[in-house]
Write a structure and sequence with these properties.
Layout: H1 2-18, H2 28-36, E1 49-56, H3 62-71, E2 79-84, H4 92-97, E3 106-111, H5 121-135, E4 139-143, H6 150-157, E5 166-168, E6 172-175, H7 183-186, H8 189-196, E7 200-203, H9 213-228, E8 234-237, E9 281-288, E10 291-298, H10 306-314, E11 320-327, E12 330-336, E13 341-346, E14 352-358, H11 365-370
Parallel strand pairs: 1-4, 1-5, 1-6, 2-3, 2-4, 6-7, 7-8
Antiparallel strand pairs: 9-10, 10-14, 11-12, 11-14, 12-13
Helix pairs in contact: 1-5
Amino acid sequence: MGVFRGINVLLCKLILYRAQGPFSSKSTPYIRFFILFKPRNLSKKILAVPTNIITGFLGVGKTSAILHLLKHKPADERWAVLVNEFGEIGVDGSLFQGQHAEDKGVFIREVPGGCMCCAASLPMQIALNLLLARAKPDRLLIEPTGLGHPVEVLQVLSEDHYRDVLSIQKILTLVDARKLADKRYTEHATFNQQIAIADIVVGNKQDLYDPGDKIRLESYVKDSIKDSGASKAKVVFTEQGILKPDLLIGKTAATSHAVHKHLDPAQPINLNEVPMPECGYIKAVNQGEGFESVGWRFDVSKLFDRDKVFGFLSSLSVERMKAIFITQQGIFGYNLTSDALTEIELDDCLESRIEIIATRVNEEWEAQLLACVNGQG
């Protein structure tokens, strides 16, 4: 595993060195080196891996749905998950790994830092290639960030060098039908693209719906498909992200026509690989699609007070929050949506991390977090 991590860091550094702007002829040697590592060299052993994109807007329950699918995967199969996060500090990968281990046939890799097809296009492909090489999976699940563009993700996966390696199957889009009353969602291009590309639209959190919400979602999907010219999508309903594995089976009807331009081709530094400074934490910010994010990594030596952490997280009024904290009582994962703050105990993690997405970042959050460190405040 260390070898793969080293290759990943090396490739990222080579690409970052030349990719400060649009690719030029000077970047050709490094791009060629990267292409040599693309899956065409893996295709002798890895062929037609069933691949599903599981998308949906912020807080809709994508991660819960994937965790449920992993829990019910065939015991003799190896499944891989490529997860993308809007924030620069990756949390989802640690949440997955804290509940599913590679010796159980589950392999995880994350691509933090925004839409994986835009700001992190090459890191996405590097991460995917390394994941395929390590896992040699029987199925691949891809979770774009809730603010990501699934059409462009599909476009990357449909490129020639993946044609024999991946078999693109059903695309699932999770939607909270209650959000259809909020123009921040219905007027958001990414929200509508996620619905238009879907083979199956999953109305999640149905236990929280008001009368008429299901009909409203079915009508919205029908109108979205009519406007986009996409194929007819099936609409199903569930709660707590419970999905039947057979929803994954079958070829997608979606096509990969790009609908937005990559405005910033510069590649971001992967802050999940940066050594921890003497202060014991790293902060990272990001913005786009009408939202801002802020995240922190904390050195493993920083032990958090569980009660203080829960109090701080409970006080947040934000679009989305995910975190893992090492406390005196153990390791806990946290998930905050508009509905609730949940806490689960995890088996393991390397360090404490938190990522917050909001319309505006509060500069006081850092001091409040540091006050949650055991012995502080």
